[in-house]
Amino acid sequence: MKGKKGFLLAMMLVLAAWMTACSGGKSADHATEFKVGTDAQYPPFEKQEGDGELTGFDMEIIKAIAKAEGMKVSVKHTGWDPLFEAVKRGKLDAGISAMTITEDRLKNYDFSDPYFEAKQLLLVPAQSKVKTLKDLKGKQIGVQSGTTGEEVTKKTFGKTYSGIRGYDDTPAAIEDLVNGRVDGVVADNGVVKYFMKQLDDQKFKLIEDPSFEAENYGIVVKKGNTELLKKINSGLKKIQENGTYDQIHSKYFGE
């Protein structure tokens, strides 16, 4: 009897598991969830509030995309470099963090369709005579390490130029500009314009250098993850067509 009861119990457990899978229970729901990383130090695109909540343009965009595709999404603050590594190793399914689509990055990762067009801007003191990035030759220039701002500055002055000061995040570079430790900051337009609202505009000004080319932000996924990429692109297209994207964009950047 003891052996028969054990056999019947095992069969019942197998049957229950099979029924759960067929009925689209929790296991099926979990399959539609994807984990996303970000560097939450880049407002207004991503920011970590005091209570730990992640807010910003990118956060609302990725949640809207997930909702449009009927997926669950969890977003985690990882930092900049760890984000790329986590996506490459498969610890994260995707990353969104005001990430420029570049040829070098496309060698190791796949990107979604562009969701934001950006351009570098130069932030300098209002009394500065600087008109282009080249005018800062011999000066100290603040950039966020590993970003396009750093790339265009190195392209202008050379990779070994001693005047480039790299920071973990753009707010730290701008803080040093305010305190007179650097002579200018090169960063994405969305971020710089956001901080200009908080700075005294009589003390600082923005410069659009004609040499700065337009760039596009994309959502990064592991190389070859075409299934997730299709879902992200599909969701992005849906929110662009139904007006959701425009609503989010207006909230952070105006019309």
UniProtKB/TrEMBL annotation:
Top-level taxon: Bacteria
Family matches, as PROSITE patterns:
PROKAR_LIPOPROTEIN
Please name the InterPro entries in this protein's record: Iontro_rcpt_C (IPR001320), Solute-binding_3/MltF_N (IPR001638)
* The Ionotropic glutamate receptor C-terminal domain, residue ranges: 33-255
Segment forming the signal sequence:
1-23
Pfam hit, one: SBP_bac_3
Could you tell me which residue ranges the Solute-binding protein family 3/N-terminal domain spans? 33-255
Record CDD domains:
PBP2_Arg_Lys_His (cd13624)
Q: Does this entry carry the keyword Secreted?
A: no
This protein's UniProt keywords: Signal
In terms of PANTHER family, this protein maps to: ARGININE-BINDING EXTRACELLULAR PROTEIN ARTP, MEMBRANE-BOUND LYTIC MUREIN TRANSGLYCOSYLASE F
Q: What is this protein called?
A: Basic amino acid ABC transporter substrate-binding protein
Q: What is the lineage of its organism?
A: Bacteria, Bacillati, Bacillota, Bacilli, Bacillales
